[in-house]
Design goal:
This protein has about 170 residues and is mainly α. It is about 70% helix and about 0% strand.
Amino acid sequence: MNKFTLKSGLLAFVTTAALMAPMVYAGNGHYGTGEGRGDCFASRQDMRGDHRGYHDHMRKMFRGLNLTDQQRTDIKVLMQQHRDAMQDKRPSSDVRQAHQEQMLTLVTADSFNEADAIAFMEARQAQRQQGAIEMMKVQREIYQLLTPAQQAQFKENFAKRGIRKGDRP
C-alpha cells in the first residue's frame, strides 16, 4: 500500500468522524433526555444527579458546615416543601400559551408599542422577584437550623463566595 494512500484514507476517516460527531451527539435534537432518544449520552444535568439542578447554589452555600443527619433531613423537608409550593404556583398551560401569544403579538405587530412591552416585562419581572423572595425565605429557614458555629462558618463562606481564587489571601 502506498504511503500517500494510507495518509489520505486516514485523513478522510478523521474528517468524516469530526463532521459526524455533532449529529451523533445531537440525538435527533433531544440530547440526553432519558426518554429513549440519545440515552447513551447523558446530559450534563443527568450526570449531576437529581439532588442538584436548579438549587445547586443552595448546596454550595452549605458546603463544609458538617451538618448533622437531623439537619440534613430537615433541609430536605424544607426544600421539598418549597418545590411543592412552587409547583402549585406554576401557571397552567393555558396561561403559558396566552403568554406566548402575547409575546408573539408584541413582536409581530405593525408598529412597536413600547408601553405594552414595558408592562409585559414588568409583569415577568414581578414573577421572578416573587420567586427570588420565596427562595430567600427558604434559605433563611435553613440558616435558622444551623448551630451558631455553623452560622459563623456560613457567613465566612458567603463572604468568600464573590472573591476569585487569585484574589484570596
